[in-house]
Automatic annotation (TrEMBL):
It comes from Ketobacter alkanivorans. Keywords: Phosphoprotein. This is diguanylate cyclase. One of its GO terms (molecular function) is diguanylate cyclase activity. The modification 4-aspartylphosphate is found at residue 62.
Length: 491
C-alpha cells in the first residue's frame, strides 16, 4: 500500500528543497513528500494521486505564485479533497488574505516566512494527527454501524439464512474488506463437523465442510502483490460452540490493526443471533406442546427476554472495545478533556511565539439535568451528540473543540480576537436557542451560557485563560443564562 502523500507547493526551488528536507527527516517513515512549482502542476499531481488511490492528508502551499495564488489553489483543492488539510506558508499574505483562505478553503494553519523549523514541524504533526484522528473516527463509526446492524437482526422476523446473509453483506460493505469474501459455517448434529451455511463476496473457494476448531486464526496467503489475508473465528456463545466465521480480505494492506478485534466482536454477535434463533425455534416447539400451561409459557418468555438482554450486553461490550481512541470523547467524537488541554497548550506556545491573538470559550448547556430527568439519559446523550455536531458546524476548521465533561464544552480559537470570538459565541448561542432536537417523539429545546477570555501573550499555559472564561461563564449563569459574557482583563 502506498504511503500517504504530503504535497508542498512553491515557485522557489530552494524553498521546496528546504521543505522536503525538513519533512522527510521527520515523517519519511510514514509519509511521502511530493513537490510542485505551480498551482497547475499541483492540480495535475493531485489528479494522478487520486486515480492511483493514494491518500493526501496535507497540502503546504505558498501564497504568492505566478498564474494562481495559493488561496485560490487551496479552494480548488478543497473541492476535490474536502478531507485534506492545508497550511499556507508565506511572508507576503495580508490578514485579509489569510482570513479569506480560512473561510473559503478551510485553512488549517498559517505560518509566516521565514519559519521556525520546530514550530513548522509541530504544526505539520498536529495537522497530520488531526487528519488521522478524523479518519479513525470515521472507521470506528463504520465498525459500530456494522455491529449494531448485525445485533438488530435478532429483532427481525427473518429466517436464520436471511439473517446470516444480511450480516455478511453488511460486513463486506466496509472499505477494509472491499472485494473480499466471507462464509459462515454451522456445526452438524454431532457437533464435530462444520457445514457451509452461507457465503458472500467476490470469490467462492470455501470448503463445503471442515473440522471445528476453537482457535482463532489469522494468516496472509501469498498471491502475487495482493497477498490476501484470511481470518478464521469460532462462533462461541458463552463457551458453547455454534459454528465458525471465515473471512478473506483481498489485500492484507487494507487490514487495519482494529480489524481482528472488530471481527471478534462480530463473531460474538453472530453466535448470539444463532443461539437466539435456535432458542426461539425450540421455544415455539415447546409452547406448541404446552399451550395449556400458562405458567410454563410465561417462564419461557422470560427466558427469551433474558437472552435478548444478553445480546444487548454484547453490543455494549463491543462498543467498549471499539472506544480505542483515547484522545476522543466516546459520545460526541470531540477531543476529550486531557487531549484538548494538551493541544491547547501546544497552540498557545505557537501563538505566544508569533504574538497572534487567541481566545478561549467555555460553554455550558442550561438546565441540562432537566433533560435527563424528564426524557431519560438516552435523550441527554442524543442532545450532547447533536450539540457537538452543531459546534463543529459553526466553528472554523482551525478551532479546537473539546468536551470537558458532562454538558460542558470548550473552544480554543487561534488567530481570533475577542470581537471575533464574541461573534462565534453569539452565533452558537442563537442557533442552539432556535434549534429543536427531536428524540423518541419528544421535541427538546435548550439554551447555552458562554464565557469568553482572551489568552494573554505571556501566559505559560492555558489554565489562566480557562479560569477566566469559567468565571465569565458563571457570570452568564448568574444573569439569567442563555447569555455570552466576556472575562474582565487582568489588572
Amino acid at each position: 500500500m502506498k504511503k500517504p502523500v504530503i504535497i508542498c507547493v512553491d515557485d522557489e526551488k530552494i524553498v521546496l528543497t528546504s521543505l522536503k528536507s525538513q519533512l522527510s527527516h521527520q515523517f519519511s517513515s510514514k509519509y511521502q513528500v511530493e513537490l510542485a512549482e505551480s498551482a497547475e502542476e499541483t492540480l495535475e499531481l493531485i489528479d494522478e494521486l487520486i486515480e492511483s488511490g493514494t491518500d493526501i492528508p496535507l497540502i503546504i502551499a505558498d501564497y504568492v505564485m505566478p498564474g494562481m495564488y495559493g488561496d485560490e489553489l487551496l479552494v480548488r483543492i478543497k473541492e476535490k479533497l474536502p478531507e485534506t488539510l492545508s497550511i499556507m506558508l508565506t511572508g507576503q499574505a495580508t490578514a485579509e488574505a489569510v482570513g479569506e483562505a480560512v473561510n473559503r478553503a478551510g485553512l488549517f494553519r498559517y505560518i509566516a516566512k521565514p519559519w521556525h523549523e520546530s514550530d513548522f514541524l509541530l504544526t505539520v504533526s498536529t495537522a497530520l494527527d488531526s487528519y488521522t484522528q478524523k479518519r479513525e473516527i470515521q472507521r470506528r463509526d463504520r465498525f459500530r454501524h456494522v455491529l449494531a446492524k448485525v445485533i438488530s437482526l435478532a429483532l427481525k422476523p427473518e429466517t436464520l439464512d436471511q439473517q446470516l446473509e444480511t450480516a455478511l453483506t453488511s460486513l463486506l460493505s466496509m472499505p477494509e474488506l472491499a472485494s473480499g469474501c466471507a462464509a459462515i459455517y454451522l456445526l452438524d448434529q454431532n457437533q464435530e463437523q462444520l457445514e457451509l451455511r452461507t457465503q458472500w463476496g467476490q470469490e467462492s473457494d470455501f470448503a463445503a465442510s471442515q473440522p471445528f476448531s476453537t482457535e482463532c486464526e489469522q494468516r496472509v496467503v501469498p498471491n502475487g502483490s495482493k497477498r490476501p489475508c484470511r481470518f478464521y473465528l469460532p462462533l462461541l456463545y458463552q463457551g458453547t460452540p455454534m459454528g465458525a466465521l471465515e473471512v478473506k480480505a483481498q489485500s492484507s494492506a487494507n487490514c487495519c490493526q482494529e480489524l481482528p478485534e472488530l471481527l471478534a466482536s462480530y463473531a460474538e454477535a453472530l453466535a448470539g443471533i444463532i443461539q437466539l434463533k435456535q432458542y426461539h425455534h425450540a421455544l415455539e416447539k415447546h409452547n406448541a406442546e404446552l399451550e395449556h400451561t400458562v405458567q410454563k409459557r410465561t417462564k419461557d418468555l422470560q427466558d427469551a427476554f433474558e437472552q435478548q438482554s444478553k445480546l444487548n450486553n454484547i453490543l455494549l461490550e463491543a462498543n467498549r472495545k471499539l472506544d480505542f481512541y483515547a484522545s476522543m470523547d466516546g459520545l460526541t467524537s470531540l477531543y476529550n478533556r486531557r487531549f484538548f488541554l494538551k493541544l491547547a497548550n501546544s497552540e498557545l506556545e505557537r501563538a505566544r511565539r508569533y504574538a497572534h491573538p487567541t481566545t478561549f470559550l467555555m460553554l455550558d448547556l442550561d438546565y441540562f439535568k432537566e433533560v435527563n430527568d424528564e426524557f431519560g439519559h438516552l435523550a441527554g446523550d442524543h442532545v450532547l451528540e447533536q450539540v457537538a455536531r452543531m459546534l463543529v458546524a459553526e466553528s472554523r476548521e482551525a478551532d479546537l473543540i473539546g468536551r470537558l465533561g458532562g454538558e460542558e464544552f470548550a473552544i480554543l480559537s487561534p488567530e481570533s480576537t475577542l470581537q471575533q470570538a464574541t461573534r462565534l459565541a453569539e452565533r452558537i448561542r442563537t442557533r442552539l436557542n432556535k434549534e429543536i432536537i427531536n428524540f423518541d417523539g419528544h421535541s427538546i429545546k435548550l439554551t447555552v451560557s458562554i464565557g469568553i477570555a482572551e489568552v494573554g501573550s505571556e501566559e505559560p499555559d492555558i489554565q489562566g485563560a480557562m479560569s477566566r472564561a469559567d468565571k465569565a461563564l458563571y457570570k452568564s449563569k448568574g444573569t439569567g443564562r442563555n447569555t455570552v459574557s466576556i472575562a474582565e482583563a487582568e489588572s
